[in-house]
């Protein structure tokens, strides 16, 4: 039996290296964002570079309604709308989320360790990795 035929890469993760950091709040800079479809659901991954470790990139994943055509849409009270509104210092439209406006801003972000899989089963400690779980504030940059 050929098991390789049953292995599918998780969309959008092929170019992200898994990193393990101490859970804390870190200063980060926006690098890029990418819309992906995961099991018929739309998601946006925003990559952030850590100021303390410029060679490390951590992702922040958001559920969205749509990302086709370069226009990102999400619910009015979704995490992406609330966090970007706070980071940009202004209310943003939920049907035109301007992720690119984060460019040039230093942000404070909460970084946590992932210790369970998608079914909430514990991971072995060697499989732990870090992700950005929340954007907290803008530290500097033009508003």
Q: Determine the N-to-C terminus distance.
A: 57 Å
Radius of gyration: 16 Å
What is the CATH top level name?
Answer: Mainly Beta
Structural class, from helix and strand content?
A: mainly beta
Portion of residues in beta strands equals 35-45%
Poorly predicted runs of 5 or more residues = 1-10
Q: How would you describe the overall organization of this protein?
A:
The chain has 143 residues and is mainly β. β2 and β3 (57-64) form a beta hairpin. The protein has 1 helix and 5 strands; from the N terminus they run βββαββ. A 5-stranded antiparallel sheet has the order 3-2-1-4-5. 20% of the residues are buried. The chain has a single domain (16-140), classed as OB fold (Dihydrolipoamide Acetyltransferase, E2P), CATH 2.40.50. Helix content is 7%, strand content 38%.
Relevant terms:
five-stranded antiparallel beta sheet; 7% helix; 143 residues; mainly beta; disordered N terminus; 1 helix; globular; 5 strands; OB fold (Dihydrolipoamide Acetyltransferase, E2P)
